[in-house]
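ok so heres the complex, two chains, lmk if somethin looks off
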Amino acid sequence: MRGRRGLLIILSSPSGAGKSTLARRLREWDPEIQFSVSATTRAPRPGEVEGREYYFRDRATFQKMVEDREMLEHAEVFGNLYGSPKKSVVEALKQGIDVLFDIDWQGGQQIRNSLRAEDTVSIFVLPPSIAELERRLLTRGQDRGEVIDKRMARSRDEISHWAEYDYVLVNSDIDRATEEVRAIVTAERLKRSRQPGLIELVRDLNSEFEERSGEHAPAEDSPPNR
Amino acid sequence: MRGRRGLLIILSSPSGAGKSTLARRLREWDPEIQFSVSATTRAPRPGEVEGREYYFRDRATFQKMVEDREMLEHAEVFGNLYGSPKKSVVEALKQGIDVLFDIDWQGGQQIRNSLRAEDTVSIFVLPPSIAELERRLLTRGQDRGEVIDKRMARSRDEISHWAEYDYVLVNSDIDRATEEVRAIVTAERLKRSRQPGLIELVRDLNSEFEERSGEHAPAEDSPPNR
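and the predicted structre for the whole thing:
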């Protein structure tokens, strides 16, 4: 990695567009990518584990963290508070560890504004159609009809913010979309500006050239290197 | 593709760092990527075909093309003129076809300055070491010792321009480097700014939301979409 800073990956999409699956697959591909775990004041659902899905906090504790500027972003959604504790993220980036945020547009905006822009890359995932989005929400089978309606309204709001993201992909095929997210992360890591260690590598190459020169005398004429 | 403009891909590296192999593999991966063919005043080498490796032109014809601003870039290298005819490239980009330039830093600079910056993406390939670079030049077996020396001097010059490129990769393993170049092209195509057709897609999604709303009445309370 040659001393690069970690990448903060913001992944947003309406519910049902495949964001969670993409996030999971990205981590399977590179287990060193750290998943940002949010804090929330809502009650745990069956199967949810403290520190894995969320840090479950009471409202007073959560608000104290906000006051102490320990949150990278936070928002109230349907009466519950959600937020991303800052400390672990900043530490990870310093150590060259990439951190993935599976987050909505409001959280994405706050993060982009509270961290160095050159550390973040944002990806928005669109569904191929609204019918497909609704179908995916219905097949999950965990929500009642009116919940679906509310989710759909929220999805529409989420989609309206697509143009704030660096990259946009349409999830028509989950395997293809997975490849695309991996490609974005791979490419972002290869940006010159993200690889401060290259200066050292080129210095080493130049030293090699120095050692080499003088071994042979230069020639007069030769074909071009093109 | 949804009406995007083509991408002009500038690929540079010192001779022997694997640039030609990477360019070939990129085209095998996506045969729709067009290879820019240079014009040159030098004589064809055995096996070279007009219009495939180069357009072979006499000096007067070449200079007329430069005067008529038909060259995207040109340079004199070891007594021969080399250049990229502009027309076919501009046409391809307009049609949404990506064009690959396997070119040195001088050509890369001229191209970046004569086309819209948002159309170009530049990639520099570094060798893992100078010993490895020399080994690859020697195994080609087509050059004499003094030619190698001249190529090595030129390589050093080429490497000194690495910091002018958007992406930099180290070719320690050709399969890995191939994956990296593909990832860069895939990611660049997914940049929001490169997909004007997304506006239409989102408009279609919104129409679907409009048609859908009214089918069910909204609910009072539901879990957040987070």
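quick notes: Residues 217-225 of chain A have pLDDT under 50 and may be disordered. thats all i got rn
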